[in-house]
Amino acid sequence: MQNKGSYYLTTAIAYTSGKPHIGNNYEVVLADSIARYKRKEGYEVFFQTGTDEHGQKIEIKAQEAGVTPKEYVDRVAGEIRGLCDLLNISYDKFIRTTDASHERQVQKMFKRFYDQGDIYKGSYEGMYCTPCESFWTELQLVDGKCPDCGREVKPAKEEAYFFRMSKYTDRLIQYINEHPEFIQPVSRKNEMMNNFLLPGLQDLCLSRTSFRWGIPVDFDDRHVVYVWFDALTNYITGIGYDADGDSSEQYKKLWPADLHLVGKDIIRFHTIYWPIFLMALGEPLPKQIFGHPWLMMNGGKMSKSKGNVIYADDLVEFFGVDAVRYYVLHETPYENDGNVTWELIAEKTNADLANTLGNLVNRTVSMSNKYFGGIVENKDVRLSENDRAIDEDLKNTVTGAYGQCQAQMESLRVADALTEIFGIFKRCNKYIDETEPWVLGKEKDSDPAKGGRLATVLYNLVESILIGASLLEPFMPETSGKIASQLGAELREFDMLGRFGLYPNGNRVTDKPEILFARLDMKEVEKREAEIAEAQKAETAEKAGGQEENGEGQPVVDLEAKPEITYEDFAKLQFQVGEIIACEAVPKSKKLLCSQVKIGSQVKQIVSGIKAHYSPEEMVGKKVMVLVNLKPAVLAGVKSEGMLLCAEDQEGNLALMTPEKAMPAGAEIC
RNA sequence: GGCGAGAUAGCUCAGCUGGCUAGAGCACACGGUUCAUACCCGUGGUGUCGAGGGUUCAAGUCCCCCUCUCGCUACCA
Question: How far is the CA of A601 from the C1' of B33 (A)?
Fold first, then answer.
């Protein structure tokens, strides 16, 4: 293939807070297939993936595990890299945000932003009005003064560095409008525009002082750099960017990246903050950001304590690496989320890999051995009109597949590209049916014409399969290799795939055909799945058994630490037990319920955002914890005179706080 | 509440700028076949194309309205 220049693609880097599940690994498989494909097309590909290793969550996880954060991330990063290797990911660089070179560059970039005025020192909580005891963001201030009392405000102690996003917003809007291909799929572009860019960007807080596990700001070492800035910049530090202008040759060759592949959940960071950071550095923006859909497990509800988390290593052990790759690539179409369960993978493996592909290779090799001792030879006998038409149709399908595949890959429709490739194998199966080799085989010795025809039929099959396998290589490299080896030939380069008949005449296929994909018994699949579920549950139970230890099945919720308060601060809050005597949904609101709450002898109206978790009916009669002396506010046009207190987990599930014993409405909570 | 996406066969989905009897894959049923991993090939759907209205010679395909689902966002005190 001719050299088509460089092609730089990345995945998002994986957060090292724990072992990733198949839904996380899906992205690198997708990226890998694109990387391998582009390489075969003649691009000089550089494919980077890696791990994101800083942040408070990791600091806490490490503490729980009784190890240093570095020890913790070393272990998890190793695990993640191991999964990549297991999945046959052909990354060129595996970057870690704890790499010394990355850390140094992040510090330099941070300093440079500060020096050029993009970063200013402000306050994380906001401006503090001492008499009102309130924090305000700069935007809320009226003429730089407290919007409540109009008095002077001053920065709070909780200082932080902020990035002036507003400075670059217009340029970014213009860029996005002029480059319709920048954000893919396009529906995401509108989301970003309408929700963030057009209303105006808030300045982004770029440092934290509440924990230590991060890259220190070198000129103010109480601060560590915000993890997103740390993480996003990996795309340039990994290839040798230098903030002082001494970037590597590699960087000059590869940047701007051709493709950032990221999950749809973090497309905002990649299409807004990242481009703005690059503008501030004076570097060009990446050519395309693709926000791919997710692979959902059992409809998205998974937990280790239920035993339904699906991990790549379990799948690979049972199905084999290429069956897993095939499934995740084929099942996630383009814009919609895909689904993954053990049963679905098994079904797809049986239908497409065992039946269509594996059986095709097996029957072709078997017939070659049976009829010609494994020798594959095109006899070029005279064909009937009918046979000629059949052969032509086969060849057209096979030689045309690359073009079809190409068109799909151009728009990153990997699933559709795979479908095109499997069209070859389906056509081959049909070809066998049309030519009926077993009929020819019976008369091949008595009728040389039939024998010749049979040889040609098998030659055409072997040739077609080899072309199909060559095209399949980026997606299922191991399988393609096995097929080529069974056929006794080498996989082809892409620019050969339009030509039919390159298989060496008289070459020999293997005499010991190996089953590529065994048909799976659904009972076996269910059994294995159940075993793994049991193991997960057992592991969770074991961890939960330890006193303070939190297993991954009972996730901890880590919050950003707030500043310490005094007892006096606390004493200002008035908590009481309230009894909900009436409750109704707030019209024109998706999340709000309006409750009448009896507190002692008074009744307060309180609006709460808990509609998704409680129906108005079940609210009535509950005794709940109420923050009584909160300043009244109007929500969705309804007055609210307090706050019902709830616990909230990682998924945003809410649980009302209720007294553990019967208590009268109005009882003080202290 | 705002913005956006979607609602098509049992399941997962294709159907571009409106045009002949609305498609694919899976599953299922039947038929054929036996080289092969009980495999492959063929055949099979009366689907109100979410409801209603409109434009048009002609509408899943355009317009209006409604219902529901999903995503982002705001409020979630």
Answer: 86
Sequential DSSP letters for A618-635? HHTT-EEEEE-SSPPEEE
Domains of chain A in start order, with CATH, are 341-508 (1.10.730.10), 567-669 (2.40.50.140)
What DSSP letter does each residue of A232-297 carry, written as one string? HTHHHHTTT--TTS---HHHHHHPSPSEEEEEGGGHHIIIIIHHHHHHHHT-PPPS-EEEE--EEE
Which segments within A3-101 are labelled E, that is strand?
6-11, 14-15, 44-52, 93-96
Give the number of other Cβ atoms within 10 Å of residue A560's Cβ. Answer: 10
Note the ipTM here. 0.88
Question: What does the alpha-carbon distance between residue A502 and residue A91 come to, in Å, rounded to a whole number?
Answer: 31
Between A56 and A421, whose confidence is greater?
Answer: A421
* Strand B contacts in A 261-300 (CB under 7 A): 264-265, 268
By C-alpha distance, which of A315, A321, A239, A408 is closest to A29? A321
Q: Which residues from 301-340 of A have any strand B atom under 7 Å from their CB?
A: 333, 335-336
Of residues A157 and A16, more confidently modeled: A16
Q: How confident is the model at residue A558 (pLDDT cuts 50, 70, 90)?
A: low
- Which residues 363-392 on A are within 7 A of strand B at the CB atom? 363, 366-367, 370
In the prediction, which pLDDT does A553 show? 42
The whole-angstrom separation of Cα A325 and Cα A603 is: 60
Nucleic strand B under 7 Å from the C-beta of A605: no
Residue A318 pLDDT level (bands cut at 50, 70, 90): very high
**A652 pLDDT higher than 70:** no
| Shortest CA to C1' contact from A199: nucleotide | B73
Look up tokens 């429709």; give the residue: A413
CA distance A659 to A665: 11
**Residue with token string 């990242």:** A274
Nearest-nucleotide field for A193 (CA, C1'): B3
Beta strands in A64-140 (DSSP E): 93-96, 119-123, 127-129, 134-136
The b-or-e profile of A144-159 (16+ CB within 10 A means b, else e) is: eebeeeeeebeebebb
Using the structure, give the distance in angstroms from the CA atom of A323 to the C1' atom of B27, rounded to a whole number: 20
- Is A148 near strand B, with its CB below 7 A from some atom of it? no
User: Closest nucleotide to residue A442 (Cα to C1')?
Assistant: B35
Q: What dihedral do alpha carbons A376, A380, A381, A385 form, nearest 10°?
A: 110
Residue nearest to nucleotide B5 (CA to C1'): A187
